[in-house]
Specification:
Helix content is about 20%, strand content about 35%. The chain has about 170 residues and is of the alpha+beta class. The protein has one domain: Pnp Oxidase, Chain A (Roll), CATH 2.30.110.10. The protein has a 7-stranded antiparallel β-sheet. Strands 6-7 form a two-stranded antiparallel ribbon. The longest helix has 9 residues. It is globular.
Length: about 170
């Protein structure tokens, strides 16, 4: 996939706009709000790297599925993203408290309301090693008994850009 025409401030996307990371399929999926990730190239492929704490419900979905999505939303959905990040999918259907609509594309799930959806195929996973993280950051982000995040590198296999919510680029959202 040629993404050379796409232009975004990738440093602002994760930090200020947040995103939903989703893994699973139409029958069973989970999403979590993320505020960190990277975009770039690896092995001549366009990639997104996300980090998931093993304590998160989405962790199992990421491990069981080959595809995941990263959706970025307009600012008006900040409340919904906050809700998705403050409750666990283990405790029930968090989508019922939002206006978000899941869309199903092959074996990937993304959201109709997203401005930008990246469909990714896992290329590589690795657990972060706490002893390699600067001590002050490891203390800040991890309890001594918890392991560090797992890193998932995904090849971007499709990009759905929602121009003014017209859904023209995605036949799955109707």
């Amino acid at each position: 996939m040629d993404l050379t025409h796409y232009n975004a401030n990738i440093f602002e996307l994760f930090l200020h706009q947040w995103a939903l990371l989703t893994a699973g399929n139409k029958e069973d999926f989970n999403s979590m709000t993320i505020a960190c990730g990277t975009m770039g190239t690896l092995w001549n492929k366009s990639v997104i790297t996300v980090y998931v704490n093993p304590l998160r419900y989405t962790y199992d979905f990421m491990n069981k599925n080959d595809l995941f999505t990263v959706d970025f939303f307009p600012a008006k959905y900040r409340k919904e993203l906050g809700l998705m990040g403050s409750r666990s999918g283990r405790d029930g259907d968090r989508l019922k408290g939002t206006s978000l609509t899941p869309c199903f594309l092959d074996n990937a799930v993304h959201y109709k309301e997203a401005e930008l959806s990246f469909i990714c195929k896992k290329l590589y996973t690795q657990d972060l090693v706490k002893s390699s993280i600067p001590q002050e950051l490891a203390k800040q982000f991890y309890a001594p008994e918890h392991q560090a995040h797992r890193m998932y590198v995904g090849e971007v296999i499709d990009v759905i850009q929602n121009k003014e919510h017209a859904y023209a680029s995605c036949g799955c959202c109707g």
